[in-house]
Amino acid sequence: MLNKEAIGTVLGEVTFPVELGKVREFAQAVLADNPEYDRGAPDGPVAPPTFLQTLALWEPEGGAQLPDIGLDYLRVLHGEQEFEYFAPIYVGDEITATSRVSDIYSKPSTKGGDLWFVVFENEFENQRGERVAVSRMTLVQPPKRS
Amino acid sequence: MTATANERVLEVGDKGPDWSSPPVTRTDLVRYAGASGDMNPVHHDDTVAQAVGNPSVFAHGMFTAGVLSSYLVNWLGVGSLRSFKVRFRDKVFPGDILCCNAEVTAVEEADGIPLARINCSVTRQDGSVAIEGTATARCGR
Hints:
A: five-stranded antiparallel sheet; 5 strands; 7% helix; 38% strand; elongated; B: 141 residues; alpha+beta
């Protein structure tokens, strides 16, 4: 049983620069060699679709401060990851990410007990206040095995 | 979005190109760990991975998802994706080959812009599904 009252809790806000070297490093790490990532699309180099995962490098040591949801992190799995894109992210942008707990719900497991789902949402804005992307990470906690 | 290099004309049933990765190496996993900042040792330290019941280190789910996004971008153009969602089905281990697949399931208009809905997945050399997902992409007419 998780604490549904944590839904809506804002976990924090962090601002980070989009740097050419980081974009190039990340693109290589996901086996992308598109020239748009280092030499540039018409308006300059852009970030690859899952680049916003590098937000992890800007969070406090040990990850974002989490409210008391009741998750057992040794049992938790990364179930789903989603991105919505509203505007390109360019090298040179300053991105501000706001993280919140957006949903907590359960479903009966076919093996008995409940599966619990916790959705963390990050909203990303650039230095002009334009919303550029939203990401959602769903963690899944399977029932405890006795 | 203005960064779209090209907008491929898409129809229902169109498939992405045949593409498979080289076998995944530990070097790939270390590179992704450093690039993403996800330093969970189960992805680079066999001792830790085995202590929690794995035969060896395994890939970050977001490594495999990132490779799938790179495949979609190579097909559809940089800047074309409007959304990308994946569900993690099974672990990827060193030596696995990532076979990327995508198919257009619908073409719709949203605010006068043609958008393709796409089902995508990564399967391994034995045909088992590692991740499956959906994407929407701006396309040409």
